[in-house]
Amino acid sequence: MDLNGKSAIVTGGGQGIGRGIALALAKHGADVMICDLNMEAAASVAKEVEDLGRKALPFQMDVTSEDDAGRMAEEAYQFFGKIDLLYNNAGTISMSLIEDLDAKAWDQIFAVNCKGVFLCTKAVIPYMKKQGGGRIINTASQAGKTGLSLLTHYCATKAAVILFTKGLALELAPHNILVNCFCPGSVMTDMTIRESKWASEMTGEDPEDILKKWESAIPLGRYATPDDIANVAVFLASEYSSYMTGQAVNVTGGQEMH
Ligand SMILES: NC(=O)c1ccc[n+]([C@@H]2O[C@H](COP(=O)([O-])OP(=O)(O)OC[C@H]3O[C@@H](n4cnc5c(N)ncnc54)[C@H](O)[C@@H]3O)[C@@H](O)[C@H]2O)c1
């Protein structure tokens, strides 16, 4: 899949799935802006992208800030001369019984997982419209398609991302801007390790045993790697998905099929 000459923005690109996406895009020829709260991590991934022979721009930002989102789009445009792809990947999670979840934690997860997607999207649209098209790809989750106890707030944010994707796809179709999202299942990243520790605190089970139990529920019998997810992200950026918009693509090892 040839992404030569394409320029991409990846939010939450400093580690995990976002890092995997940034590197996979670069391997297929794209230049990449790596946006993250953690500048050190963004700079380290930018170096990896440059080592693959592509242009890279590390950028420190908080996706919940409208100013940061505006600067992100401006700097990407200055650096690349265009914005072909936006990956709204930054996300956060916490785990709680609903009666223990405080309103601040609810607002915080919606701010990052939903408002962040909205703000970054809004910021790039004028550039994409001006240049006659683009792709917006959001990292949703299988948790946006099915209920999970202790993750009610997280599920609600990811369901919102899926429907935001679909509405936006219709609104932007006349401008040749294709909008899709993918729904990863369980991916072996820091986020999953953090979840296993929280589950361990709640149940007293060993975190390693919890990880094994979760893995045994995956039909393909293993966690996804960031590369498993990034390969689908590359497909959604490429000409091979030129007739797809408004889709929520499962990448779950068979765990979610709707
Ligand atoms: N790991 C999984 O099993 C899994 C499954 C389905 C969906 N997802 C989703 O995939 C995305 C990436 O997950 P991951 O597992 O790589 O997580 P991660 O925690 O390993 O990495 C998330 C990255 O996002 C950055 N980030 C967090 N909040 C930010 C903010 N406000 N502004 C800018 N950057 C911010 C972090 O600094 C970090 O670099 C998230 O949207 C997550 O919800 C993950």
CATH superfamily of the largest domain: NAD(P)-binding Rossmann-like Domain
Order of helices and strands: EHEHEHEHEHEHHHE
N/C terminus separation: 27 Å
As laid out across the biggest beta sheet, the strand order is 3-2-1-4-5-6-7
Rg from alpha-carbon coordinates = 18 Å
Using the 3D structure, state the CATH architecture of the largest domain: 3-Layer(aba) Sandwich
> What would CATH call the class of the largest domain?
Alpha Beta
Name the structural class. Answer: alpha/beta
Content of β-strand: 5-15%
Shape: globular
What share of residues is helical? 40-55%
- Please tally the β strands and state the result: 7
Which stretches are low in confidence, meaning pLDDT under 50 for 5 or more residues running?
none
Q: Major β-sheet, in short?
A: 7 strands, parallel
Question: What can be said about this structure in brief?
Answer:
The protein is α/β, with parallel strands linked by helices and 258 residues long. The protein has helices spanning 16-27, 39-51, 66-80, 103-131, 152-172, 190-203, 207-216, 226-237; strands spanning 7-11, 31-36, 56-60, 85-88, 134-139, 177-184, 248-251.
How would you characterize the overall build of this protein?
The chain is an alpha/beta fold. The chain folds into two domains: 7-187 and 225-251, Rossmann fold, CATH 3.40.50; 188-223. 49% of the residues lie in helices and 15% in strands. The chain has eight helices and seven strands. It has helices at residues 16-27, 39-51, 66-80, 103-131, 152-172, 190-203, 207-216, 226-237, and strands at 7-11, 31-36, 56-60, 85-88, 134-139, 177-184, 248-251. It has a seven-stranded parallel beta sheet with strand order 3-2-1-4-5-6-7, with helices on both faces. β2, α2 and β3 (56-60) form a beta-alpha-beta unit. The chain binds nicotinamide-adenine-dinucleotide.
